[in-house]
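Notes from the 1:1 (GR / supervisor)

We went over the backlog. Supervisor wanted to see one worked example end to end before approving the batch request, so GR pasted a single chain during the call. The sequence is below; no edits were made to it. Supervisor asked that the structure be written out right there so they could see what the output format looks like.
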Amino acid sequence: MAFSAVEQGVFDFPLSIPPALEGERPALRAAVRDAQRRIVRFAATYGWARLVEEPFATEARIFDRKADFDRDAIALTGSEPATLLPKTFSAGLERGVLIAVSPALYAANFPEGARDPAGYEKLLAHEIAHRLHVRILDGHEDDMGPIWFFEGFAVYAAGQWAEDAWDPEPELLDSVLRSSRRGSYRDYGKVFRFFARRVPLRDLIGQAAKPRFAEWARATAELP
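Structure output shown during the call:
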């Protein structure tokens, strides 16, 4: 599908929405643009401006029904049709298609993320950040590291819960590093920011896929 550049790293592309959201089209299109701008600013900060010169998506779809969103997400990811997605799962970017629930549905299903006035924009930026992460790794998606790290990277890049500037409690840090299950994205952000304040981000990304990454990160951050 056709897309056009609005400015460096920010693109307009087809936006599919149900009739009930037609009145919100200008605001939704603005949210998609602003989400891209967030990632452009983040990339520029770390010397990755060249990685945002091409669009991460060439189409966007926003839904006012969670069942419709889930159906599309399952199809785009090639998951089993009977897959049950969490209520809070609200956006994704697969095969060049950015999908999301509507702002109202996001606020209803995940109030913690929607309390931020820019929360919806950051939700979309989070998904774009995952694609930036893959580009940083030259397309090696399997090298993104453990769940806490790649989700924490996206939280950090999107600016979600930026007010969480304090160090996480030792118990939380230990719990996040040891768990292989999906947990709180806000906690992932706290732990990621903790390490990003102490270790160069490029070094963290380069080490994340290695077997003893958690131990390396602890030692490099001079933790016991």
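Supervisor's comment: The two ends are 52 Å apart (CA to CA).
Batch request approved.
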